[in-house]
Design a protein that fits this description.
Elements (H helix, E strand, L loop, with lengths): L1 H8 L5 E3 L7 H5 L8 E2 L9 H10 L2 H11 L3 E3 L4 E4 L4 H14 L3 E3 L6 E4 L4 E5 L2 E5 L2 E3 L14 H7 L5 E7 L3 E3 L1 H4 L6 E9 L10 E7 L3 E3 L1 H4 L2 H11 L4 E5 L25 H14 L12 H7 L4 H9 L1 E8 L7 E6 L17 E3 L13 H22 L2
Parallel strand pairs: 1-5, 9-18
Antiparallel strand pairs: 2-4, 3-4, 6-7, 7-8, 10-17, 11-14, 11-16, 12-13, 12-15, 13-14, 15-16
Helix pairs in contact: 1-13, 3-13, 10-12
Length: 399
């Protein structure tokens, strides 16, 4: 929709082909129904970072927000630079996009999956069922495979691989972590503020930790801070053949550490970094409370039951570095974002134009770009759509 409006704004005649029964379903599901559409902070793209940065130089966050403000959307900025619709409803984002498409009389055909894109002497021919659509340019903005029914089944990638493009293998990013059953038994449903660190087989930290609210489930650990580690966990499994161990530091729950997000200093990486203050904290409590009441009022009952019987040194270690051996990452149907996609190197980052097929453009999660949680993925989708739309239109309308 963003690409269509951008191309239309340059004077191009646009047709939108939508495989689903309606446009924009993923927008309604994003941000827990609030739609975190952008982030004004430093860009964070674990996948395709250099390509994404180049696109965002062409269309920075200020331009994305100007685009939406021009459509009538009111936005607000919250913690971490996250930008949301002011009314707190994802539907507002979809409403302004659909409203603009209707005002400009852009034709939209739903329930119209594309079966093939074929180059011709004068452009591209798009086949949909028994019909064909001839175009001077085509923008592939089909999204990724994350989100189950809200994503595609992989067929959209084949449209471009059939034209000679390369598919980087897809996998879930921003997805819940699966763990050994014994590690999370009895804790399902428990939500706790924590610092999460991944460690390899030799105990070495795999990058910086993340802090936030962690949710224990019957299969493992969820919550944004856990999902942020999914890509890294998968990379460790591919590299070593073994899943890493997740260490959970509950110091934030006890007020023993400052609040922080994202990248941290090296000194903060190691699990158990709060072991000494945790032990001192417990020793102070032990002076005034009996052993069987040491955890009461301090940690939730489910966790207290799990730690029951541990000595004070053992409790300090468990609360500052609670080990959760991982067994996997939940699949694409549970992921918020797809890692992998059509190789970025085959597209010009300044125009989103294919370097293999004249007249072909790609935008959004179709490409091998995935961002951190916090609005970065939608921001890249919108920015790349704006760039691809205007560049495609300028090319075909150039005298």
């Amino acid at each position: 929709m963003t690409a269509a409006l951008s191309a239309s704004g340059q004077g191009a005649r646009v047709l939108v082909l939508e495989a689903a029964g309606r446009v924009g379903r993923k927008i309604l599901a994003s941000g827990n129904g609030r739609c975190n559409l952008a982030n004004v902070g430093p860009a964070s793209y674990p996948g395709g970072g250099a390509f994404a940065q180049n696109v965002l130089r062409q269309c920075p966050v200020s331009r994305v927000l100007d685009f939406f403000h021009g459509l009538g959307l009111v936005t607000v900025e919250e913690d971490g630079g996250r930008v949301y619709p002011g009314c707190g409803q994802a539907a507002a984002v979809l409403d302004v996009l659909r409203g603009a498409i209707e005002r400009r009389a852009i034709e939209v055909l739903c329930d119209t999956p594309v079966q093939r894109i074929q180059p011709t002497k004068w452009g591209l021919r798009v086949q949909t069922g028994g019909k064909t659509h001839d175009a001077s340019a085509v923008i592939a903005a089909c999204g990724g495979m994350a989100g189950g029914k809200l994503g595609h089944d992989g067929g959209a990638y084949q449209l471009l691989t059939d034209l000679g493009h390369t598919l980087t293998p897809v996998k879930p990013a921003l997805s819940p972590l699966m763990a050994e059953k014994s590690a999370v038994r009895g804790l399902s449903g428990l939500r706790l503020p924590a610092i999460l660190t991944l460690c390899g087989q030799k105990g070495q930290p795999l990058g910086n930790p993340f802090q936030g609210e962690a949710l224990f489930t019957d299969y493992g650990v969820s919550g944004v801070c856990a999902m942020e580690l999914a890509r890294r966990a998968g990379e460790e499994k591919e590299k070593t053949g073994a899943w890493p161990t997740l260490y959970m530091d509950f110091s934030p729950m006890l007020g023993l550490c400052p609040r922080y997000y994202g990248a941290l200093d090296e000194a903060w990486r190691d699990p158990g970094r709060h072991l000494k203050p945790m032990r001192a904290f417990l020793e102070d409590r032990a002076h005034t409370l009996p052993k069987d009441a040491l955890l009461q009022g301090m940690v939730p009952r489910l966790l207290a039951e799990r730690l029951k019987g541990q000595s004070l040194p053992e409790l300090a270690r468990s609360l500052s570095a609670f080990p959760v051996p991982l067994t996997g990452v939940r699949g694409l149907e549970y992921a918020q974002v797809t890692a992998g996609g059509i190789a970025c190197r085959e597209f010009d980052p300044d125009t989103l134009r294919s370097q293999l097929v004249p007249g072909l453009y790609a935008a959004g999660e179709m490409l091998d770009v995935d961002g951190a949680c916090g609005g970065f993925n939608l921001q890249f989708a919108f920015a790349s759509g704006i760039v691809a739309g205007e560049q495609a239109a300028r090319t075909i309308l150039r005298p």
